[in-house]
Amino acid sequence: MLLQRFTENMNRNGLLLPALCVLVLAGCASSPTADQQSRSKNAQIGADGQPLEVREVPAKAQTLYEQAVASMAAGDTIDAELRFQEFLLQYPDYPGAHVNLAIIFAGRGDDQACENALTDALILDPQHAVALNQLGMLLRRQGKFLEAESAYLKAVTASPDYALAHYNLGVLNDLYLQRLDAALQHYERYQAIEGEDNQVTKWIADLKRRIGASQRSANVTE
After folding, report:
1. pLDDT 10s digits, 184-195
2. Neighbours of 44 (CB within 10 A)
3. Tally of domains within the chain
4. How many Å separate Cα 214 from the centre of its chain?
């Protein structure tokens, strides 16, 4: 069961979830519905549940950024990287562009370039939730689990409704740190923000079973 969940998580975290972290500039996202707005309790959280850049940028720069994001979403990471770098030559103080570059480098397995890009982002904004979440993912891949936990916790402190960071904290506590209560707390928080996720619902049920069994075992030994 644990190996199956580990494999499922690697598929989600390695392929699906980072794609959801692509950052857009303020004004680039479609207009949110009333329900989506009610979920955006933090000014840094957009209609899709992801933190957004909040600085105003010229229209030309916004177009360049949108083109880079579109290339990234289409899987053309070489073009996306060039466009983000061009953007940063003109507007170097936008951490989201550095974070998107970090996501591209992580996808290539270039941990050093990923770390450098995240460092650049966090110098500009030490509370940038997506940068902190990506740093946590990098540290987890490197086996630095406590450092990864610290980065994830900073992400949810900066943006309490940042679902992916809660998801990653759940995974980290469940599979790597063996802190079942903490894992359950973060999975449930993820569900509360994102809505029903069938796979996470199964993990929550399994965690509750394991926690109950552990408590019964402790009672017997006492």
Report:
1. 999 999 999 999
2. 19
3. 1
4. 31
